[in-house]
Design goal:
alpha/beta, 6-stranded parallel beta sheet, 9 helices, binds adenosine-5'-triphosphate, binds pantoate, binds beta-alanine, Rossmann-like_a/b/a_fold, nucleotide-binding
Amino acid sequence: MTSVIHTRAELAAAVAAVPGEVAVVMTMGALHEGHRTLMRTARARAPFVLVTIFVNPLQFGPNEDFEKYPRTLDADVAACAAEGVAVVFAPSRDEMYPGGAPQITMDAGPVGGILEGASRPGHFAGMLTVVQKLLMLTRADVAYFGEKDYQQLALIRRLVRDLELAVDIVGVPTVREPDGLAMSSRNRYLSPADRSAALALSRALRLGAASTDAESALATATKILAEEPAVRVDYLALTAPDLGPPPASGPARLLVAARVGGTRLIDNVPLTLAPSDRLPDPRPRQRA
Ligand SMILES: Nc1ncnc2c1ncn2[C@@H]1O[C@H](COP(=O)(O)OP(=O)(O)OP(=O)(O)O)[C@@H](O)[C@H]1O
Ligand SMILES: CC(C)(CO)[C@@H](O)C(=O)[O-]
Ligand code: BAL
């Protein structure tokens, strides 16, 4: 039986009663199979899984989709129940931010200012602030985040490391639709034509990542994205796994963000670069 609670007092009581580990999955709701995979992964480790559902105003820019973000609590609770989640914490804005916006917030540091951070100023500071609050309020021993939001996951790992937080962060690979589209709550904004155009993102990453050479990985992905006029690329970047400059060889990450119609989508994949004869260029590689 999944209990649904809305206040921090109820949350404190619920977690105080847990004899073992508290495993947390943080979400903004409009749950899909990606979220459910996080819950299932959490359930495999801990019997007590807590899902938070909160559309955090702090991480949305003034012209972003905070107001229209899908809010589907009943269906979300049903999905959590089907995954054996013990508690859903769905606070109001006042419950999370009593007294209004916080005066003390997180600084997302240099990695918070590139890629998504460059396009969404303040987004990662707002995200890290609510994640830090939710880690404290839930007393999480372990928290699960998706690789779909790769830079978010990297920053949360950095938060935990830099501030000595006593929580395990587990990353979960991106769950995709059968045709390759990364699952995302924002996919429901896409018209059928936009959805079809949006497949260029995963196709570009997949075919780009098939190359073991940095230049051709970027060139292949760039070409595929350029073939789809409805896709307006924000960035296409090849980085190290920690989002630093790409290595001369070994594990790397290919990331993309683009607008399709009025919807901004992101995606990323791992790839492995083979050693090349050329000297590596130490600058991050990015094409817009
Ligand atoms: N396709 C996916 N595969 C794995 N994890 C995912 C996927 N989509 C979202 N998640 C993870 O679920 C958690 C909650 O994400 P969120 O509620 O923002 O969903 P979302 O689908 O990413 O929404 P949005 O479309 O608003 O970006 C995050 O850790 C996120 O990375
Ligand atoms: C981690 C998170 C729940 C914080 O609001 C959000 O950024 C998300 O859903 O990925
Ligand atoms: N899915 C990451 C949260 C956001 O886009 O605001």
